[in-house]
Design goal:
Layout lengths: L6 H30 L4 E2 L1 H6 L1 H9 L17 E4 L5 H11 L38 H12 L7 E6 L6 H12 L5 E7 L17 H7 L3 E6 L3 H13 L7 E6 L16 E2 L2 H29 L6 H13 L2 E6 L2 E7 L31 E2 L1 H12 L5 E5 L3 H4 L1 H8 L4 E3 L4 H13 L3 E7 L5 H19 L11 E7 L17 H5 L5 E5 L3 H11 L6 E5 L5 E2 L14 E4 L6 E5 L3 H14 L4 E5 L5 H9 L4 E4 L5 H13 L8 E4 L15 H7 L4 H14 L1
Parallel strand pairs: 2-3, 3-4, 4-6, 5-6, 11-12, 11-13, 13-14, 14-16, 15-16, 19-20, 19-21, 21-22
Antiparallel strand pairs: 1-7, 8-9, 10-17, 18-20
């Protein structure tokens, strides 16, 4: 008799039986997606093995969500790190009311917001995932924020295949160190991946012990049974916490829950006859589960001793979108409620950082300042606003971020050690939550794969905002990458550390605004511009050695604008440069003037299309002098090819690290040695310009 069991056990048994019914509904929605997808395909294996963990989480009374306002701060957060399980996520989110179930049809088509991997195009999804090993790091960043002013928990689902990515273990190490006991990672340990669906390329020996060694609490469960996963999640949510993040290793098989072994594949195009067969078996299984629950439920109410349990199960069923239909006092059927769209447009975010301008450093013209010191002093002023967050990666002394932000609030000045990918993921997390986030490392040390995915997510946000979707103005991300030791500033640290090709590489990353800073006053202007908010992804290259102030105190930075720092009425040529090259160009201009040659020196911290075209049309020689592999020069060519029908190159003279010797990578040397070797110091610039002008 059920009366011999305690109330808690009865409630748990009833909930797990309801979860099994919901499981059938979600799998049927996933199959529906496949039937109506543009390619009739689905990432079925990973989607099905992740269904029990995700249904347990979203329908087991575990995760606290504000479905009406997914960007509100009074809720838990979820990240699907294994993006290939998007079908399960979409089925659940449509059922919960984030969007209409019509979205499940025509997925992956160009007209659909439901892609082959999740992203912010889809209401309620905060992070674009798909590239392996990154979503878990963003979840960790959310968890750091969740331990601060707004207390919330963070859940992530990762796959055992993506645990082969190094960025995962950067996250595991740091999360354990930070004692993120509000972080719960569910590992879909299905034992397969893309190339081999029934085994891993590198099978794990002691996966739980690996997590434990980095300070995690590990719960290993058979994830083919709902009561195991539900119990583990319940323990995380409502049990006593000891400072450790939790990893629930959900042991399963790829495609678990599907009847046909065709469901075990990674991605499959499934024919209608197989879909019909699978859907019919899923419906039959649902009917069995429904009958079993009704029998259990009716036994509870036989003599009224468990009326409280009955009420709790009725309430829980309603919260799951299930209706327990009664004939008299007996349950006869469990039906699915028609979902309604609950998500509303997010309120606008004001991204402008509040600070006192009087607290900013005063930079006297002609005096020398280090860029890191300017950033430190500015951050002390900006960080009076709690939305300023910084993350360094063991190079804080070169950025000034940690010293400045940490002076105000050390909990908002993070340092991840030698883990640049993890740094980028944490920075993205805070930016998603509305912070003005700053990260820093050497110029070449940023991770292209991470940046590209961050940019994809940012683009999706911009598309949704412009298209009047679920996000509104201010819900793009503000993430500034402070790139230290740009151009020849690295000097004797070696070729691997030289920042000579980074700008060119990131020039191809969409939505990344590249700024190459010269003067300390210009740097301060750039910082003030960034904290106005809504500037997007910034790649700001700074000098490592101190430099003299050449701009006036009232300097105002505008992105996409060049600045003439030396101008002569009868100038016979232009020197276009940026960063440390500005100082060499100014000295070269003095030498040229002493030889009777006047030139204008144009500082181009960001690409100014108008200025480039004006100089080109002036008919005067334009010397594009750069201490890198030709970032400005590349953009000059691009602009001219886009805007001009015929291009005359005789007055365009590039001078950069590839035009003398042709080597792509720069090896060690002092600054003076390197500048001389590549012909970008003042002496050789003036000689090059003088000889070129004489030959014309």
């Amino acid at each position: 008799m059920v009366y011999l069991e305690d109330k808690k056990s009865l409630i748990n048994k009833g909930i797990t039986q309801l979860l099994e019914i919901k499981d059938s509904d979600i799998r049927l929605l996933s199959l529906h997606q496949c039937r109506h997808a543009v390619d009739n395909a689905i990432h079925i294996g990973g989607a099905f093995s992740a269904t029990i963990p995700m249904v347990s989480l979203f329908y087991g009374g575990i995760i606290d969500l504000n479905i009406e306002q997914p960007t509100a701060t009074d809720q838990d957060l979820f990240v699907l790190s294994k993006g290939h399980a998007v079908a399960t996520l979409a089925s659940i989110y449509s059922d919960l009311g984030y969007f209409d179930q019509s979205v499940l049809e025509n997925s992956r088509s160009i007209n659909s917001i439901l892609n082959g991997h999740p992203g912010p195009l889809l209401p309620g999804v905060h992070v674009a995932t798909g590239p392996m090993g990154q979503g878990m790091g963003v979840a960790q960043g959310f968890a750091i924020a969740g331990q601060q002013a707004q207390k919330f928990d963070v859940y992530a689902v990762t796959g055992d295949g993506e645990l082969q990515e190094g960025s995962i273990w950067e996250t595991v190490m740091y999360a354990g160190y930070k004692r993120l006991d509000n972080l719960c990672v569910m590992v879909d340990n299905n034992g397969g991946q893309l190339d081999i669906v029934n085994t891993l390329h590198f099978p794990y020996h002691g996966l739980g012990a690996s997590f434990e060694s980095f300070g995690w609490r590990v719960l290993e469960v058979d994830a083919t049974k709902y009561h195991n996963v539900y119990t583990a999640l319940h323990e995380f949510k409502y049990g006593e916490r000891d400072g450790r993040p939790t990893a629930i290793i959900c042991k399963s098989t790829k495609g678990h829950g599907g009847f046909s072994d065709f469901m075990n594949n990674h991605k499959s195009t499934i024919t209608n006859d197989v879909l019909d067969q699978e859907a019919n078996l899923q419906k039959q299984q649902r009917a069995v589960r429904e009958s079993r629950f009704c029998k259990f439920f009716n036994a509870l109410g036989e003599d009224g001793k468990h009326s409280e349990v009955v009420s709790i199960l009725e309430e829980h069923a309603a919260n799951m979108g299930l209706n327990i239909l009664l004939q008299g006092s007996s349950a006869s059927q469990v039906t699915s409620a028609e979902p309604t769209v609950k998500t509303k447009k997010a309120p606008e975010r004001n991204k402008r950082i509040n600070y006192s301008p009087a607290a900013l450093p005063k930079l006297e013209k002609g005096k020398s300042f280090g860029a890191h010191k300017v950033i430190e002093l500015a951050m002390k002023a900006f960080s009076s606003d709690e939305r300023i967050v910084s993350v360094d990666s063991d190079l804080a002394s070169t950025s000034g971020l940690q010293a400045g932000v940490g002076f105000v609030d050390k909990y908002r000045a993070l340092n991840v050690g030698v883990a640049e990918a993890n740094m980028m993921l944490i920075g993205e997390a805070f930016a998603i939550l509305g912070a003005n986030a700053w990260i820093s490392t050497f110029c070449p040390f940023y991770d292209w794969k991470v940046l590209r995915r961050v940019a994809v997510g940012h683009q999706e946000r911009l598309e949704v905002i412009a298209g009047n979707g679920w996000l509104s103005e201010g819900h793009g991300i503000d993430l500034t990458m402070v790139a230290t030791a740009a151009d020849l500033e690295t000097q004797s640290n070696g070729a691997t550390h030289m920042g000579n090709d980074d700008a060119l590489l990131l020039n191809e990353a969409a939505h990344v605004k590249i700024i190459n800073v010269s003067c300390p006053q210009q740097l301060l202007g750039v910082l003030k511009w960034i904290v106005e908010g809504n500037k997007g992804i910034i790649y700001m290259r700074i000098l490592r050695a101190a430099a003299n102030v050449i701009y006036d105190a009232d300097f105002t930075f505008e992105f996409g604008k060049a600045y003439t720092v030396k101008q002569a009425d009868n100038a016979g040529a232009f020197i276009v440069t940026s960063g440390r090259g500005v100082y060499e160009a100014l000295d070269a201009a003095k030498t040229l003037e002493s030889n009777g040659v006047l030139v204008n020196v144009v500082d181009m911290p960001s690409i100014d299309e108008t200025a480039i075209l004006e100089m080109y049309h002036s008919g005067k020689p334009v010397f594009i002098a750069e201490q890198n592999n030709g970032y400005i020069w590349t953009n000059v060519r691009k602009i001219l090819f886009e805007k001009e029908g015929n291009i005359d190159t005789k007055n365009l003279i590039p001078i950069n690290t590839t035009t003398r010797g042709g080597l792509h990578y720069i090896h060690s040397g002092t600054y003076n040695e390197l500048a001389a070797h590549y012909g970008v110091n003042a002496e050789q610039l003036s000689d090059k310009i003088l000889n070129t002008l004489k030959s014309k």
